[in-house]
Amino acid sequence: MILPENSKDHLEVEDEGFDHESIISRGVSPGLVRGASTSRHALHQSQAGYSGSRPPTYLEDDENDHFYDEAYSKRPTSDASLVHNAAPAGQSKGYYQDLEYADPYAPNAYTSQAAEKTSPFARFIGGNEGKYPLEQRIENKKRGIGRQTYPFLTWIISIVLIAVFIYEEVIQTKAQGTPVSFKPTVNPMLGPSGSALIYLGARFPPCMKNVSSVPPSTLLACLNDTANPSTINCPLEEVCGFSGFDNGTPNQWFRFITPIFLHAGFIHIALNLLCQLTVSAQVEREMGSGGFFLVYFAAGIFGNVLGANFSLVGSPSTGASGAIFGTTAIAWVDLFAHWKYQYRPVRKLVFMTIEFLIGFAIGYIPYIDNFAHLGGFLLGLLVGIVFYPVISVTKRHRAIMWTCRIIAMVLAVILFVVLIRNFYTSDPYAACPGCRYLSCWPTASNNHCQGTGLSNSSSSI
């Protein structure tokens, strides 16, 4: 077979012939580094040879099959089995000189360099020495990646809220034959009557302590009363339920907690679930279920404590709004703590302000307490400062954050203690007489936010 002088096959043959002769007969060039190829040098020399009058190479067909000898095909430089002939990591093999590394060989060079070991509490609050390096935490913050992928606690709480609301509707339907109360008063949130909500555990101060304006002898509309004004009245102890009072004295302190799981109607629970499954769920993803649990229930309970102090004593209150407002306060902590990492922070601030004002306006609807919203938001800010994982780039910023955490924790404890003590005094209104207007829009139907706030369906003796 005759190979044309300028053909590709001709060049490849010359290349291969050069490799075979140069490596086998003459050995390895002293300057050749392991892994280097001689084919480029061979091609250069073969092309240089053709520039003269070198005659074309003639090969027989059977010579193509045996061009490489057996010895050469088994040498470490053969391309036939690179994996089989590979040298261990960081070492050389064969006839070439050893590799020189810029840095000493480190088997764990690509292992994630986590921060120094810290206490579980430091990791829980998201200290700078957290689970991941600082650069990765900043990148995760910009991309919206939190501590966990799924908000399991938010989902569980939402399922519980739905189950409790179904139970509310069952009690309401058994009492009045309809899931929505239209008599003796209309529930604008399309849900149970006021008496049914009190019976199920709404925040209602006359069931929690002695209220001079609503003593235990007060008669309220029974659950099955559908007349307006009410014609079927029941003692306060019976309407409060839960096996009545001990020694005839109202003492149902747990009504600081139970209203979190109750809702005034279909509209109420739909709005709360919408916020909880969006805003609250994202907060749980970012701070983890542990911190989210503390913020959610601390804010919800404190909202009811604040409302019990300054709301009209005769107006029942329900809803997880205080707890949800507490989780939205975390978004404010995140916004100001990580302003430079936020995407369009000014725009985000505007939308968050609008959402807060809408929630505040909803608090004037009957059976919904604005104090729960405001109290939950306030304590959410304080507890969020303590437990939200804030990224501290400098030691100065870290010291400032720890100072804020200590102050916030002290303020949260003081607020709880002061307001609970104030609630169990004879007249909690005396501490702030005008605060009632934060949750009551003065109209003729509510006596311009004066008195007890009991609806027309109730009477007292």
UniProtKB/TrEMBL annotation:
Its main location: membrane. GO terms for cellular component: membrane. It is a multi-pass membrane protein. SUPFAM superfamilies: Rhomboid-like. Residues 1-11 have a biased composition (Basic and acidic residues). The keyword Protease applies. Residues 1-63 are annotated as: Disordered. This is Rhomboid-type serine protease. The chain crosses the membrane at residues 150-167, 260-279, 291-313, 319-337, 349-368, 374-394, 406-424. Keywords: Hydrolase, Membrane, Protease, Serine protease, Transmembrane, Transmembrane helix. It comes from Lentinula raphanica. The keyword Transmembrane applies. Residues 36-50 have a biased composition (Polar residues). It holds the Pfam family Rhomboid. GO terms for molecular function: serine-type endopeptidase activity. Serine protease involved in intramembrane proteolysis. It is found in: Membrane.
